[in-house]
C-alpha cells in the first residue's frame, strides 16, 4: 500500500468564495503515482468546506443566497459563539456544505462523473487556510 | 491491496425518488471478494445523492416535504442557475442529503448498524444516471 | 494492509447532546498500530451523527437552536414518521450534521487541523447507541 499527503493553501481576499480545486487535486494525484485507491480531500478548518458540485456561476450565486437564508451572517449578535468572534454563521454554512469528499482513484485518475468538480468553500476568509489531500492505494 | 469498481445505473421515472440500494451494494461487495476494507458509494451526478437512513415510507415523505421547504423546486425563476435549466433545487437538495457514504467492510460484509440502509436519492430524474461503488481492502 | 475495528458505546441521558470523542478516536488509532491510512468514524444509528467542528460551548448552543429551527422536534404530529415514534426530527437533524467523517492518518496520528475536533451528535438519546471506528492502512 502506498500513501501520499499534500496540503493546498489558500488566502481568499473575501469573506466567502467557492474555488474550483479539481486541477490541483488531479495534479496531487499524479504526483502520488497511485493508480487504484481512495483520495480524501478535506478542509482543515471548521469554517470552510470541500464539496463536489457544478462549476456554474449562477448556481454559485444561488448557493450564496441559499446559505445566507439558512444560516445568515448578520446580525452577529444572534449567535452565542460570536463573543469576540463574528464567524458562527461560517461554522453552520460549512456544516451544510460538508467538510470533506472521498473520491475513487481508478487507473491513476479521479473517478468523477461528467459534471463533478471539487470545490473549496470559504466562509470566513481573509486569512491563510489549508486543505488536506490524503491518498491511499497502490 | 485489492480494489474493485462497479457502476449502478438508474432511470427514475419521476423527478424525485429515494431508492434502497443496499442489496445491490452488498452484491457488489460479494463480487469484489474483499473481506476487510472501506467501500465508497457516491452519486456520479450533482443532482443526486447517496445517503444512509431508515427505510420507512413515512420518513421518506417527511424528507420530501422537508427538502421542498429548505430548497423549493418552484418558482424556477428564484434561482439564477435556472437559465435553460430547471434543476437548481436538485443541486441544493442533494447538498443537504450528501454525495457519498463510506462504509466499513468487515468479514466480507457491509458493517452497518441495525437500521442503516443505503439509498440513492434522485432529485432530477427521468434520465439515466449512475452511482459509483469503489472498494479497497484485502 | 492492516485493518482495525472498534465500537464506542454511548448512553446519553438527554434527548440531544454533542460529545467530543477525539480522545477516544485517538486512543483507538494508537491501539490499531496503523501509521499511514484512513480512519472512518460513523454513527451506527440513523438518529445520531459523527461530525467535525469546534469545541466551543456557545457554538454548540447555536447548533441546538439552529437545528431546532431547520427541523423542529415538536409538534410531533408534523411528521408522518411519527406514528408510534417521536424521533423524525432526529433523522433530519442528523442528515444536516452528517453520518460520518473520514480522517487521514499520518505518522500514527489523526491528521486534523488546529481546531478540528470529532463529535458524537446525539439527537434521540436516553438509550444505548454505537459509533464505529474502522481504520485501514499500514
TrEMBL record, chains A, B, C:
SUPFAM superfamilies: YjbQ-like
Gene3D superfamilies: YjbQ-like
InterPro entries to which the protein is assigned, alphabetical: UPF0047_YjbQ-like, YjbQ-like_sf
Record Pfam families: YjbQ (PF01894)
PANTHER family per the UniProt record, alphabetical: UNCHARACTERIZED PROTEIN YJBQ-RELATED, YJBQ FAMILY PROTEIN
Family matches, as NCBIfam families: TIGR00149_YjbQ
Protein name per UniProt: Secondary thiamine-phosphate synthase enzyme
